[in-house]
């Protein structure tokens, strides 16, 4: 059997998608391992969750870099390469990336977004879908490119918008699908490497 693909998950907060990926990686025959969880904020709750699961948890704090986003990303890139990371999975990583990191990991960086792209890129996806009268919402896993939420789509899951839905109710149902979709899509992606 070939070695599992070494994946780093980048987070900014609680890391529920990261936690789902860590669980998926523990299944026999999973084609990826979560080798690193990296956060841009020292108080990211997901760091504790990763460490408790036996995954290396690292904070590369964005604050000391001020407005020099590329210098910050060079520090991240160095940490990833030092650990032999092969694929990056963004999971609630709330920073817009510079061309440096996007180009350095082209074709090897995935993101999950809580809408059916190309509809509703960016923030407030659930509220925007409800306000527009959509009948369904969902989530998308895509490759990261220079444009925000514009990369090639690798997988989607659909969720009906129910009468009386509000943003938290819809977000909770979409998040359930995110956890399943991200693990399945990452597995398929890694098998194809």
From TrEMBL:
PROSITE patterns: GART. (6R)-10-formyltetrahydrofolate binds at residues 69, 94-97, 111. Pfam families: Formyl_trans_N (PF00551). One of its GO terms (biological process) is 'de novo' IMP biosynthetic process. N(1)-(5-phospho-beta-D-ribosyl)glycinamide binds at residues 15-17. It is an enzyme of class 2 (transferase). Transmembrane segments: none annotated. The active site is at residue 113. Pathway: Purine metabolism; IMP biosynthesis via de novo pathway; N(2)-formyl-N(1)-(5-phospho-D-ribosyl)glycinamide from N(1)-(5-phospho-D-ribosyl)glycinamide (10-formyl THF route): step 1/1. Its EC number is 2.1.2.2. Residues 6-185 form the Formyl transferase N-terminal domain. Keywords: Purine biosynthesis, Transferase. GO terms for molecular function: phosphoribosylglycinamide formyltransferase activity. It catalyses: N(1)-(5-phospho-beta-D-ribosyl)glycinamide + (6R)-10-formyltetrahydrofolate = N(2)-formyl-N(1)-(5-phospho-beta-D-ribosyl)glycinamide + (6S)-5,6,7,8-tetrahydrofolate + H(+). It comes from the Bacteria. Catalyzes the transfer of a formyl group from 10-formyltetrahydrofolate to 5-phospho-ribosyl-glycinamide (GAR), producing 5-phospho-ribosyl-N-formylglycinamide (FGAR) and tetrahydrofolate. Belongs to the GART family. This is Phosphoribosylglycinamide formyltransferase. It comes from Caulobacter vibrioides (strain NA1000 / CB15N) (Caulobacter crescentus). The lineage of its organism: Bacteria, Pseudomonadati, Pseudomonadota, Alphaproteobacteria, Caulobacterales. The gene is purN.
């Amino acid at each position: 059997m070939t070695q599992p693909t070494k994946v780093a998950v980048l987070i900014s907060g609680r890391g529920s998608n990261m936690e789902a990926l860590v669980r998926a990686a523990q299944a026999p025959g999973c084609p990826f391992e979560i080798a690193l969880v990296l956060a841009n904020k020292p108080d990211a709750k997901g760091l504790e969750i990763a460490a408790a699961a036996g995954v290396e948890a690292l904070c590369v704090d964005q604050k000391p870099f001020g407005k020099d986003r590329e210098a910050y990303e060079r520090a991240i890139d160095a940490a990833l390469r030092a650990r032999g990371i092969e694929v990056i999975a963004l999971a609630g990583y709330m920073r817009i990336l510079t061309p440096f990191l996007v180009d350095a990991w082209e074709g090897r960086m995935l993101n999950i977004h809580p809408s059916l792209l190309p509809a509703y890129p960016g923030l407030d996806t659930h509220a925007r879908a409800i306000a527009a009268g959509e009948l369904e919402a969902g989530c998308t896993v895509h490759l990261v490119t220079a444009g925000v939420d514009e990369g090639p789509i690798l997988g989607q899951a659909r969720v009906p918008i129910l009468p009386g839905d509000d943003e938290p109710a819809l977000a909770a149902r979409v998040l359930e699908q995110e956890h399943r979709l991200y693990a399945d899509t990452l597995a398929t992606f890694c098998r194809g490497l």
